[in-house]
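User: quick one
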Amino acid sequence: MQFTLVIYGAPHASEGAATALRFARAVLASGHEIYRVFFYGDGIHNGSALAAPPQDEQDLLAQWQQLQQAHNLDLTLCIAAAQRRGVLSESEAKRLEKPAVNIAAGFTLAGLGQLAEAAALSDRVVTFGG
Amino acid sequence: MTLHIVNQSPYAGSALSDCLNALHPGDAVVLIEDGVYAVNDPRLSASADNSFCLGADAIARGVTVPESIETIDEARWVALCAEHNPIVSWFR
Amino acid sequence: MPRKSILAICRHAPYGNALAREGLEAILACAAMDQVPAVLLINDGVFLLLEQDAQQIGEKNLRRNLAALPMFGVETLHLCERSLRERGIDPAQLSLPGTELKLLQNPGAFIAGFDQVLSF
Amino acid sequence: MENLVIEGREIPLDKEGFLRNLGDWSPQVAEALAAQENIVLTEDHWDVIRLLQDFYREFELSPAMRPLVKYIDQHLGPEKGRSIFLMQLFPPSPAKIGSKIAGLPKPTNCL
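Assistant: Done. Structure below.
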């Protein structure tokens, strides 16, 4: 079965993203697939390359990236939500004339159409609230 | 049959009661995160036929889950998601 | 794309939480992609329908965004009757140009009829 | 994109040619913005520009293609409420180019 996960919570601010990570691992371990992880609202902060949590706290970004690499996950940040909150790719920073790029490796920016498409093409959509 | 996921403490907001007001016979409720503080809420046992509680979240918080509610791990949660459709989250 | 029935549930009040605005944006985007969702306003989401003047707090008017739904192909808004009554809103006083407002007595049965639910 | 100069006054544009200050919009500015897209504004263009501005006032949204077509259909009739009509007026991306010339906020790149 194809699962899509929608995440609204910022890391280290709400528990949603950490729960989603546990859920995602269980989905994969159960033999299902993850069609897409769509980060929306404050959830887009999960894709910031600049987060530097203390060494004795869990590093959510590194865990998402490991999972992404191991399973070739589609980690999509909503571009409109990310623009508002300041997570930019090189091309967006250029287009919007902003001074820095901070999207983490393994994540992509894309439109809300990717949420619509995931809802239409996956078997299950699970929302992780903020 | 719908699977409802509640992640908010019933003492902090209305997510649990909002969920229970939108319950259809046969639906299941999964308590996760702060939602596990609802394990002893009488409204839950009164309205929901099938209630589940994510074990790790309950243990992490020192919450004891009564026998009327099935304690589940993440794999069982995924299985419940596969068995039910649609899935609705109630939060904040 | 294969047809899946999609329901968007809006249960947050405007302005206090970005989810009210971003939920509407997601609904518009789905509709613009030919995945027109059904829309249910429930709990504090029913407050989206009140006449409002968001300029007072420097915000864009979310009721106006809601009024754009028919342009995107969403011509019916489903409202939880209980949520309205609990909040002292008389359903008979509500209207939105170009939109049919449908009252639901049993949101649970309604929700159960969809393939996917997006919760906002 | 180079800034516009209208009657000796400089109108700043961003990199993609959108007005930096939406308050700078005037019919003359629209003519100049259109010229940058190699478009000469006709009465049909102006009808659409006015409807784009009405749409924005009514819904506080810059329209995507589909709702724009529907809105034009409602106000100018089915003959003009078609994407081909808009494509001819504001190629290659009518909602974006039209919004730029009408002085609406830059779309969020969402669709």
